[in-house]
Write a structure and sequence with these properties.
With 98 residues, this protein is α+β, with helices and mostly antiparallel strands. It has two helices and four strands. The protein folds into two domains: 36 residues; 57 residues, no CATH class. The radius of gyration is 26 Å and the shape is elongated. The chain starts with a helix and ends with a helix.
Length: 98
């Protein structure tokens, strides 16, 4: 094998990787690529706390728009244990810390 074959192969690889990079850059600039994550302030849904009951089931406290819901997940079916719990404010949370 001639050394020019190796050089041509490496140059072709660099060219193809450059094309892939250019295509991904163009896709991001045109809005086709993945969008940035929504900031913490823009989030409406959060898992507040999770507690494992046994190997399958767990209790999950979910906050949505300032209202909390207690869910039992992982069994045969999911179950809403309690809904419409008022989320505590920051002052109440600070008082509960040891």
């Amino acid at each position: 094998m001639d050394w020019t074959l190796y050089v041509r192969t490496v140059l072709a690889l660099i060219f193809v990787l450059g094309l892939i990079g250019a295509a991904s850059w163009a896709a991001r600039k045109s809005g086709l690529g993945p969008q940035g994550r929504v900031g913490r302030k823009g989030r409406r849904l959060a898992v507040v706390e999770s507690l494992g009951l046994d190997g399958r089931r767990r209790l999950v406290l979910v906050r949505r728009d300032g209202v909390e819901h207690l869910l039992l997940v992982g069994g045969v079916s999911e179950l809403v244990v309690e809904s419409g719990i008022a989320a505590p404010d920051a002052k109440t949370l600070e008082e509960q810390k040891p």
